[in-house]
Design brief:
heterodimer; A: mainly beta; seven-stranded mixed sheet; four-stranded antiparallel sheet; B: mainly beta; six-stranded mixed sheet; globular
Chain lengths: 115, 111
């Protein structure tokens, strides 16, 4: 089945620890995105990537890092510099072939909690 | 000013009624508009996309777009309890690189 897989579903981070969230897609999409969702604030863009080996900061990139070494994969690292990382993290992808008409499709999300 | 604005609700309608969800956007160059449904604790699911002025119907759902007024809406006819969710409006910016999301409208359909 084609889709976007995020893992793990739940993740617990200790203070001062870096953690990496996985996002893999088999839709052959060029563009991938990471969003953070907090209650009452909608989705906020962290990073996005249009092609392999290239990515751009979104609105709230501080304390996060990404890589795009393969078309299928776009992992997000939440570093210790991110002071309030508890949130629901969503990975999405879209096809650049359809230009501005392309829809974004989401993985099932990772819920990160600081303990 | 936020890129995309929605009334947060909550919006409650009786079963069988029409639910009307509204969204405005700030970037006049936006070209693509989407409605997502998000159940509690789950990820957003695409339910409608619209690119041209006017109405687009898909089953019980109708999306309406008015680019002059920078307004997009979603009508849900014959609302069902299973429609109870948060509905997110999204806009693809004029450069096509980013999706901007509203904060969502919470809908409850009362049996």
């Amino acid at each position: 089945d084609g889709g976007i897989t995020q893992s793990p579903k739940y993740l617990f981070r200790k203070e001062g620890q870096n953690v990496t969230l996985s996002c893999e897609q088999n839709l052959n999409h060029d563009a991938m995105y990471w969003y953070r969702q907090d209650p009452g604030q909608g989705l906020r863009l962290i990073y996005y990537s249009q092609i392999v080996n290239d990515f751009q900061k979104g609105d709230i990139a501080e304390g996060y890092s990404v890589s795009r070494e393969k078309k299928e994969s776009f992992p997000l690292t939440v570093t210790s510099a991110q002071k309030n990382p508890t949130a629901f993290y969503l990975c999405a992808s879209s096809s650049r072939d359809r230009g501005n008409s392309a829809e974004a499709f989401f993985g099932q999300g990772t819920r990160l909690t600081v303990v | 000013q936020k890129e995309v604005e929605q009334n947060s609700g909550p919006l409650s309608v009786p079963e069988g009624a029409i639910a009307s969800l509204n969204c405005t956007y700030s970037d006049r160059g936006s070209q693509s508009f989407f409605w997502y449904r998000q159940y509690s604790g789950k990820s957003p699911e695409l339910i409608m996309s619209i690119y041209s002025n006017g109405d687009k119907e898909d089953g019980r759902f109708t999306a309406q777009l008015n680019k002059a007024s920078q307004y997009v809406s979603l009508l849900i006819r014959d609302s069902q309890p299973s429609d109870s969710a948060t509905y997110l409006c999204a806009v693809n910016g004029k450069n096509g690189n980013q999706f901007y999301f509203g904060t969502g409208t919470s809908l409850t359909v009362i049996p």
